[in-house]
Sequence to fold (71 residues):
Amino acid sequence: MKLAEILKQYRDEWVLIEYTKLDEALNVIEGRVLAHSPRKEDLYALLPKFKGKNFAIEYTGKLSNDLAVMF
Fold:
């Protein structure tokens, strides 16, 4: 599934994606949704289940301008 479709289908949620295609800057272009939730903590709790997979966590809503995200 393309990222644009994921963003549309899972609006304002955190999405755990097993990516199949990245761009040069390592942004997800395509992948398979493994899980989704309005709470990112729900996805973090699932991470051991997906050990060994190539995955990314994306938020599909709008982040406020005063928020910084670090990985």
The longest helix spans residues 3-9.
